[in-house]
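Title: Request for sanity check on receptor protein-tyrosine kinase prediction

Description:
We are preparing a figure and want to confirm that the structure record we downloaded matches what your pipeline produces today. Could someone re-run it with the sequence below and paste the raw structure tokens into this thread? We only need the token string, no images.
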Amino acid sequence: MEMAKCSGTGQKCPEKCGRRACTGDGECCHPQCLGSCTLSDDDTACAACGHYYHNGRCVADCPPSTYRFEGWRCISADFCSKVHLSDFDTFVIHGGECIPDCPSGYTRSTPDSMSCIACDGLCDKVCDGKLIDSVDAAQSLKGCTVIKGDLQITIRRGHNMVAELESFTGLIQRVTGHVRIRHSHTLSSLAFLRSLRFIDGENLHEE
């Protein structure tokens, strides 16, 4: 009998198995098995799955009402809603997958939603209010379009600061609080806020 090396294990499998793995006795594994298996042609006996794992079985894709997660298993929407990382409130479901946040070009339909909708133009990126006293401090605002709170700028020294700041703050369109610029004689213009359209002034300041 012709024998072929099983990819990934070094084990010699019968030629009839083709690219499939095989048991220790040379019986062909289920097509969804990866590496090896304990029973022939059984999608519940795989050492690992070639695609996705769901309810004890290896499957080619996640069945209806389940979603791909972490690249190897299928989970329910309820399970996805309970997944948390420190930087994200809840995961979202998009394109049949449970992921930390909406992909580029999409945003959550509501702040606490698990669904994504396509953005109309540039997607909003909301960032917390910040004191900018150096270019390094401004780097955390790169890509931000909405500042939630105040934007305070105090740049006392530096060269070509307008152009430097613009690369990090040039997309800001709205500040929900106030914009305060103090002791910033090195700034020759406000071109670094070229996209700013709205200053809501939600919080009052007393001098």
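Thanks, this matches our download. Residues 1-8 have pLDDT under 50 and may be disordered.
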